[in-house]
Each structure stands twice: as structure tokens, then as C-alpha cells.
Specification:
It is a single chain. The chain is mostly beta strands. It has one helix and twelve strands, in the order E-E-E-E-E-E-E-E-E-E-H-E-E. It binds FE2/S2 (inorganic) cluster.
Amino acid sequence: MPGARIHQFRPQLLAPGTRDAPFSPVLPVGELPPGSMRRVTDGDLDVLLAHTPEGIVAVDDRCPHMSAPLSIGTLEGCEVQCPLHEGRFDLCSGDPVRMPTTGGLDPDGVYHATWSPAGLPPKTDPPGLKAEARRLTRVRRFRYYPVRIVDGTIEVALPADLEP
Ligand code: FES
């Protein structure tokens, strides 16, 4: 795909273990048209490739809330919506855009209450350990894997496999 570009993420959001990691070919760039997402897997690592208006990004294919696969969510511009609790996350900035329906902590540790999609009654959260777990679950910012395109193939720098 001529002209496909790579999104330049904030350096502080580099995924751990990738600073000097080797690049691995993961997908022909023609299989990731603008506006699409794909999961690629390396060992036990599932990576989300997304072709946003600001370029191609690679992050974990795990929601920053409770790890649901974002690759089966929806992508609108830079924003991906999680299929599990309707959280929305900006793949270009790394920040959450809309907190999950469960509420909880944002990346800065600020609490957000539960919410309901328009037209539905407000959710109640019965007290107990599950409610406490939801309240203390922190949504994090994305961590990015370095990406490059070589001879029409997307390559991603992935951390070395963990020893079994
Ligand atoms: S797991 Fe994605 S919003 Fe909860």
C-alpha cells in the first residue's frame, strides 16, 4: 500500500522490553487498509495493529481496562471501542476517551462512577468485593510497539519471549 505511514507515539509510552528489540515481519501492509484493525500473535503475545488516520500503530490486543480483545471492537478515526464495557480509547494519543461502563480509576488514579449507555437506566453497583474490584481497577494508557514497513511488510519490534 503506497504511502502508508507509521504513527509517532509519545516516547514515554514505549512498550517495556522493546527499546532494542529486533523487528519481526507480521503482516503485508496491503492487508491493513486505512480504518481497519488486525490481531497478530507471537507466542503468548497478542498484538493489535490498527491503521488510524495518523498512521499504523501496534499495541497489546488487550483492553487497557480488563484485557478484552480490542481487535473485535470498532475503530472510528483514532478511537477504538471495546466490545466488553464500551470504553473508548484513543490509539493516537494513548489516552482513554470514555471510561468503561463499570467506572473505576483513570490513568491518573481519578475515580469515575459507573454509567449507562443513552436510553438505559443508571446502573446500580451492589456493595461487595466485586464492586470494590471494579472501583479500584485502573484503566491505563496504551503502550506502543515500534513499527516499520519494509518491502511492503509491516514489521513490529516485540520483546523477547519469556523463558518457560
Ligand atoms: S474490558 Fe474493555 S472496557 Fe472493560
